[in-house]
Amino acid sequence: MTIDLSTYALSDEELDLAGAVRDFADKVVAPVSYEADRTKTLPMDVVAQMGELGLFGIPFPEDHGGQGGDYFALCLAIEALARVDQSIAITLEAGVSLGAMPIYRFGSAEQQAELLPPLLAGEALAGFGLTEPEAGSDAGATRTTARLDGDEWVINGAKQFITNSGTPITRFVTVTAVTGEADGRKEISTIIVPNGTRGFTVEAAYDKVGWHASDTHPLTFSDARVPAANLLGERGRGFAGFLHILDEGRIAIAALATGAAEGCLDDAVDYAGKRTVFGEPLSSRQNVQFVLARMQSRVHTARLAWHQAARLRDAGKPYKTEAAIAKLVASEAAMDNARDATQIFGGNGFMNEYSVARHYRDSKILEIGEGTSEVQLLVIARALGVA
Questions:
Q1: β-bridge partners, 152
Q2: Is pLDDT above 80 for 224?
Q3: Bridge partners, 217 (sequence order)
Q4: Environment class of residue 145 by beta-carbon count within 10 Å: exposed (0-12), middle (13-18) or buried (19+)?
Q5: Domain chopping of the chain, boundaries
Q6: How far apart are CA 218 and CA 301, in angstroms?
Q7: CA–CA distance from 140 to each of 135, 188, 248 (Å)?
Q8: What pLDDT is stored for residue 242 in this prediction?
Q9: Is the CATH number of domain 126-236 3.40.50.720?
Q10: What is the pLDDT of residues 78-107, one digit of tens each?
Q11: What is the pLDDT of residue 1?
């Protein structure tokens, strides 16, 4: 570990958690990462062990089967995993932020009692269907529809880029759909669709540039029927609820990106110290030293940014702008560090067996998913009153 986390004013409990997950990442996740990436397979045994560690239940109350922690603690775990494998880290992030959190935030007592326990135990996963072919950053352009027919919702449409939607333990997806109009605007609601529902198809997995071991599919709905009671939260409040979930998720993605940036730094420092060029270690060259120094500066800045946003969120204070800043800064740090680390590795950096090559492919999505960098800039500009 290149950076000492004890310098970040963490509590003893937080340091213990970060240390435990980093140890798990190094001993359990890292050894299987290359093969999982090569075969484009999510290692379900690793997911099961994450469940046994309680990682999926970190930010939820104990009376729901959670660990009684906070969002900051969850982000510490995500960061620790992302150092060695972004696919595993996003599986946890999406499993909590997009799978379980909407049920916890907006679900009825009956929905929570039925759906949360297996999600928080890591025994089940769930996806969140928002993005569509014509509705990405402009989520209000949703075309998927749901109409009431007696005591059932009839859903038609398509979703894309949905994480954790087709794993062996995926139980359901939560989808946004147009359920009517209000004041001339689309009324967007959120509906729970169990896997196996007739008319609901999880299409073949994507052939992605990166995050190869993360489970990601397009979804289609053709007269898919679910009970009216599967409405999640208040009718017409689905889009507003999603925006709340997205703000939280940006903090988690920032933590993931910080972990990726640190993983690149760790590997680059180690390689530069061992690699001999013209009889001297690569790290003896000042230009390489300066590159490594900039890499560490990016990790430090990114970590401070997501720490502040997470602390504000857990304190119940406004954090939307800080989350956008953290997401922007950290995703750029991950991409920049991946590029610099790959350059330091030279030809080896182009080989997928080295983690820096996987980070190079994986990190680009961090500037796109959970709101593009341009969306983050717009959020920040609006806070300044200039947009």
A1: 149, 227
A2: yes
A3: 162
A4: middle
A5: 5-125, 126-236, 240-384
A6: 35
A7: 7, 8, 19
A8: 81
A9: no
A10: 999 999 999 999 999 999 999 999 999 999
A11: 55
Pairing assessment for the beta strands 170-182 and 185-194 based on DSSP bridges: antiparallel
Instruction: Answer for the pair 268, 341: CB distance below 8 angstroms, yes or no.
Output: yes
The CATH code of the domain at 240-384 is 1.20.140.10
DSSP structural state of residue 58: T
**SS3 (DSSP) at 142:** coil
Neighbours of 175 (CB within 10 A): 30
Model confidence pLDDT, tens digit, residues 189-214: 999 999 999 999 999 999 999 999 99
Which pLDDT tens digit goes with each residue over 57-84?
A: 999 999 999 999 999 999 999 999 999 9
Residue 95: both structure tokens together? 């499993």
Residues 376, 327: Cα–Cα separation, whole Å: 7
Q: How far is CA 375 from the centre of its chain?
A: 17
Strands (E), the chain: 125-129, 145-149, 152-163, 170-182, 185-194, 200-202, 216-227, 231-232, 276-277, 280-281
- So what CATH class is 5-125? mainly alpha
What is the chain's Cα-based Rg?
21
Q: Which residue has the tokens 């999982």?
A: 36
4 — pLDDT class (breaks 50, 70, 90): confident
Tokens representing 184 are 């001339």
Angle, helices 320-345/355-363, rounded to nearest 10 degrees? 140
H or E segment to which residue 17 belongs: helix 12-24
pTM, to two decimals:
0.95
Closest of 237, 268, 284 to residue 340, by C-alpha: 268
- pLDDT score recorded for residue 139: 64
By annotation, the residues acting in catalysis are 370
* Amino acid making up residue 166: G
The SS3 assignment for 255 reads helix
Residue reference for tokens 């009431």: 148
